[in-house]
Design goal:
Layout: E1 2-7, H1 36-47, E2 51-56, H2 64-74, E3 78-84, H3 90-103, E4 108-112, H4 114-118, H5 120-124, E5 132-134, H6 139-151, E6 161-165, E7 168-171, H7 187-194, E8 209-212, E9 215-216, H8 226-232, E10 237-238, H9 241-254, E11 260-263, H10 272-284
Parallel strand pairs: 1-2, 1-3, 3-4, 4-5, 8-11
Antiparallel strand pairs: 5-6, 6-7, 9-10
């Protein structure tokens, strides 16, 4: 079964929409974040043995029509279609997902992201062509959903899934937060496979840059910060220093043009000892010179 992951188009005529920024936006400076949470879900699904296509429409400033054309030209019969979302674009995202359902009626169309996580039932009621919501950290939800669909199994066993069944909305048991964050594929490998770093821009970093996460969740409870409040929770779960530095080394060896690595963690420096360990390893490997 083939799986399509889409960061949907939105207001392309005005610029690049940064859906995964902490405040989703189109900026005058052209700032656009990598769709990391969608990438991680794609990587986990790919590692489970599924063939994956990936489209980041805002990065290429593709509108609705160009995005549909790109997907059609892939000429794949998708069994699962995954769309990232945000609150400002939610009606647009649902509309785009509904159009994909019309094009691929056998596919299960599922939304992920902060908005459907906070309001899963309300979001599903926006359009009957949307089949489900991956509520919370989507990585293993999407993987398990793909496995269940591929085997023709009941969706009741897919933790974290909210979906339609017999005209009703079913809310499954929640998916536990991922504790072994080292098990998640590196973002850099997925960027290498699917994306072009020169399509992305972060005003506080040298261009071109790559963004990664070294941990998930945040123990602070700042009311304005959307990701810990909706998806990743307040338990800080980190990758090992060796795993993080391994990704740095991969970037150095595979992206000769990249000038900076942006760590997008909610609170990277909250564990002083781990931060120091990562820095020491970078120095030992000579990566600090790059």
């Amino acid at each position: 079964m083939k799986v399509l992951f889409v960061n949907p188009p939105f207001k392309a005529e005005y610029g690049k929409y940064s859906r995964e920024a902490r405040s989703a936006m189109i900026t005058n400076s052209g700032v656009i974040y990598y769709p990391l949470w969608l990438l991680y879900a794609a990587g986990v699904t790919q590692e489970a043995g599924f063939e994956v296509d990936f489209l980041d429409a805002p990065a290429k400033q593709m509108n609705f029509e160009k995005s549909i054309k790109w997907i059609k030209e892939k000429n794949n019969d998708y069994g699962l279609i995954v769309l990232d979302t945000s609150t400002p674009s939610i009606y647009n995202d649902v509309k785009f997902g509904a159009k994909l359902k019309e094009l691929f009626p056998k596919a299960f169309v599922v939304l992920m992201g902060t908005h459907p996580t906070a309001l899963p039932e309300e979001t599903l009621k926006l359009n009957d062509n949307i089949d489900g919501i991956a509520k919370g950290e989507a990585d293993y939800i999407i993987r398990d959903l793909a496995i269940a669909l591929n085997k023709g199994e009941s969706l009741e066993t897919v933790k974290g899934l909210v979906y339609r069944k017999d005209g009703e909305i079913k809310i499954n048991e929640e998916m536990p937060l991922i504790t072994d964050v080292d098990a998640i594929p590196w973002a850099a490998k997925l960027i290498k496979q699917f994306l072009d770093p020169k399509d992305y821009f972060f005003a506080a970093a040298a261009f071109p840059e790559i963004q990664i996460f070294t941990g998930r969740g945040c123990p602070a409870r700042c009311y304005f910060c959307v990701f810990p409040q909706t998806i990743h929770g307040h338990k800080y779960r980190v990758r090992s220093a060796q795993n993080v530095v391994g990704e740095f080394e991969y970037i150095v060896n595979n992206f000769p043009d990249v000038k900076e690595i942006v760590i997008e963690d909610d609170t990277f420096t909250i564990n002083k000892e781990r931060t120091q360990e990562i820095c020491k390893l970078l120095i030992e490997k000579g990566l600090n010179k790059r």
